[in-house]
Amino acid sequence: MKLDWFLILFPFIVLIISSANAACSSDTCPTGGLWSVWETIDDCKTKCGACNSATYTRTCLSTSMNGGCACIGNTTISMPCGTQACNYPRYNGSGVICCVGSPMIINNWYQCGPLKTNSTLACCPTGGYWSAWGIWMKQANVVKWSRTRTCLSGELACPCTGEAIQSKYGCPCPAISTITTCDSTTKTPFNVRTPYYSSSDCTATIVFEATNFRKEFFFTNGTKDWSTLGWIDSTGKCNVQDASGFGSATSKAGSFYKFSLLCNTTTGRFYGRFLEANFVDVVSIGQFY
Ligand SMILES: *[C@@H]1O[C@H](CO)[C@@H](O)[C@H](O)[C@H]1NC(C)=O
Ligand SMILES: *[C@@H]1O[C@H](CO)[C@@H](O)[C@H](O)[C@H]1NC(C)=O
Ligand SMILES: *[C@@H]1O[C@H](CO)[C@@H](O)[C@H](O)[C@H]1NC(C)=O
Ligand SMILES: *[C@@H]1O[C@H](CO)[C@@H](O)[C@H](O)[C@H]1NC(C)=O
Ligand SMILES: *[C@@H]1O[C@H](CO)[C@@H](O)[C@H](O)[C@H]1NC(C)=O
């Protein structure tokens, strides 16, 4: 345990310290995927000197990155635990010199190695790698909504750029407009009233014509009365549904149905159900004739 040790081990120590992440060259998947750091929940029998081993696990972070990047490698591994520096030689409970790995000197202390090192990335994506945004949460007594996300690659010496928290003074779901075109149906959209948007309640109130007074909005099929309702979602797709039940208001000219859509705090889009029509991810809405 003299100075000659240090000379032999010096190149090895330098190797451990110098680990940097190369930048990812494009939007392609990092080779081998993007793993979290190794973590253990085991209670290590020794607190220093790397005298014992523990089971470490890690998770694949890149499953939803660039459309899905699979990770290559084991998700569990057995590695030394209790890796803080302490004097060498060190004896375990049975009086045996313990050292998982080889003795080495770091900061003038004899230790057992290899020490647990930072996991490294194959490459660091530009701007780091964020988790998906969490759900929108309303702050009590204020019309303010916020959502957060975490930098998954930050612990891996690959910092994220951008905000980890996003706030909106108002409902996170944007107001719904009325449909002016809809390619997927031969029926003609009819603009009813522009939905009433309540930013503080986070609701969008829709009004549909309930009679054929102005247009042929509903038709009788068997014993049921039907009307065609539709909406355009955030992908631009027009979703059209026939909903029964409109006939109940047939006799009264100018009758209408009024109902509210609610804000989905995960997607930040309005959703809801009216009669048999199920609305999801609503950007524009309409009734057809
Ligand atoms: C991965 O796990 C398998 C099965 O437990 C084992 O044979 C292999 O050596 C492990 N690979 C590494 C790199 O630890
Ligand atoms: C000490 O180390 C020896 C050799 O690895 C092992 O057989 C023994 O079980 C250890 N004792 C304790 C208390 O960990
Ligand atoms: C990883 O590296 C960073 C910077 O070099 C350091 O601050 C951090 O403590 C390291 N984490 C582990 C678990 O070694
Ligand atoms: C009338 O109802 C039947 C059974 O529900 C359905 O198959 C048919 O397509 C409907 N006709 C129209 C014009 O919607
Ligand atoms: C909100 O959207 C998410 C993602 O599409 C979906 O899983 C969830 O069921 C929706 N919540 C409601 C209340 O519709």
From TrEMBL:
Q: Where is the signal peptide?
A: 1-22
- Coiled-coil residue spans: none
- Per its UniProt entry, which superkingdom is the organism in? Eukaryota
Record-linked InterPro entries: TSP1_rpt
PROSITE patterns, from UniProt?
TSP1 (PS50092)
The reply to whether Repeat figures as a keyword in the UniProt entry is no
Q: Which UniProt keywords apply?
A: Signal
Q: Which protein is depicted?
A: CUB domain-containing protein
Q: State the organism named in the record.
A: Caenorhabditis remanei (Caenorhabditis vulgaris)
Specify the taxonomic lineage.
Eukaryota, Metazoa, Ecdysozoa, Nematoda, Chromadorea
